[in-house]
Amino acid sequence: MFHTQTLELPTTKKQEMIDITKRVRAVVSASNVQNGLCSVFCGHTTGAITINENTDPDVQTDILNALERAVPHNEKYYKHEEGNAHAHAKAAVIGFSETVPVQGGKLMLGTWQAIFFCEFDGPRNRKVTVTVMG
Amino acid sequence: MFHTQTLELPTTKKQEMIDITKRVRAVVSASNVQNGLCSVFCGHTTGAITINENTDPDVQTDILNALERAVPHNEKYYKHEEGNAHAHAKAAVIGFSETVPVQGGKLMLGTWQAIFFCEFDGPRNRKVTVTVMG
Amino acid sequence: MFHTQTLELPTTKKQEMIDITKRVRAVVSASNVQNGLCSVFCGHTTGAITINENTDPDVQTDILNALERAVPHNEKYYKHEEGNAHAHAKAAVIGFSETVPVQGGKLMLGTWQAIFFCEFDGPRNRKVTVTVMG
């Protein structure tokens, strides 16, 4: 069985990490899947999907700053004229999908894990597709 | 239902991003899967799978240059003697699989998304395995 | 059919890559799945899952050093007070899941590929969840 739902996600900042765990959990519940997998997919090229801690919001800031250090937004060699080359590269580094186990009708996230949409070129209206199979 | 096909992919440059979207779409069509998921997997350690824009080819150049800045090909601390340590690290950073939703018999890629094989140590004959489930 | 098993994985170093291929293969065998996919998931925020070469152990050292160069452990801008901000960022860069094809009852890894758990803030007791579907 495959249950798919697309989440609409307006972002508000140039770069930010948005916790979408509650919305993904709601799709898992609605699917009635007991045991299987949940795939979370980002349908963009300057946004991405990751998993990380949401207890201390400093972790998100640190991750965004670490990415900025590794892939700065303003490099002379960028040729793409929209000024968001760094956002395309950051999204490629983070990745566009993560797959999480489902057991007993629930997402099997670890104790400290939350699922995040990463915005690297906002604000924009984004879409995240959640597919639950089982 | 699982439908699997392995694509043969000769690369021609030391480092390049090759758009394989058409070939992945053909596997989805051949699978007859209407609703499900499509997994794209790279069976190598110096190549990777990503998703990004293919309208402006400068985006690919910028991503490869941003990766080269973050993980340079010629660092004194590399111990691996084949001279491709950077390629192993770049592949680890980009990742070896992406999973894309399938709806109505079609890949649900976003407007600007294309699927790329990333070559970091070419030219070589590469293989990408596409699995459609639904 | 979905077959899920969680591997317990004690790590011994601050940062290391641990080859878990044999344990993943054992889960695939136990599942009796002939054709399908195998998802490997890391339930942590300072560890990650990747694929790479395990013939020359220098490759692992080079990858860890390349990540340390790109995302240093000791940057003044880190705000997270546990001293492991770099580990959260490295895990985000590597990613938390990989999906590998299964054919003829076996993992379809490429010739040089092994599956690794990446420890970025050890030593700790880690868990990796393997789900085989087919």
**Largest interface, by Cβ-Cβ below 8 angstroms: which chains and how many residues each?**
A-B, 31 and 34 residues
Residue-averaged pLDDT of chain A: 98
Briefly note the structural class of the backbone of chain A: alpha+beta
Specify the helix fraction band of chain A: 25-40%
How would you sum up the global shape of chain A?
Answer: elongated
List the helices and strands and how they pair.
The structure is a homotrimer of 134-residue chains.
Chain A: E1 2-10, E2 16-19, H1 21-31, E3 36-42, E4 47-53, H2 58-70, H3 85-94, E5 97-103, E6 106-107, E7 113-119, E8 125-133
Antiparallel strand pairs in A: 1-8, 2-7, 3-5, 3-8, 4-7, 5-6
Can you give a write-up of this model?
3 copies of one chain form a homotrimer. Chain A has 134 residues and is an alpha+beta fold. Chain A has one domain (2-133): Sandwich (Jelly Rolls). Helices cover 25% and strands 39% of the residues of chain A. The first copy, chain A, has 3 helices and 8 strands; from the N terminus they run ββαββααββββ. Chain A has helices spanning 21-31, 58-70, 85-94, and strands at residues 2-10, 16-19, 36-42, 47-53, 97-103, 106-107, 113-119, 125-133. In chain A, strands 1-8-3-5-6 form a 5-stranded antiparallel β-sheet, covered by helices on one side. In chain A, strands 2-7-4 form a 3-stranded antiparallel β-sheet, with helices on both faces. The interface between A and B is medium-sized, with 31 and 34 residues.
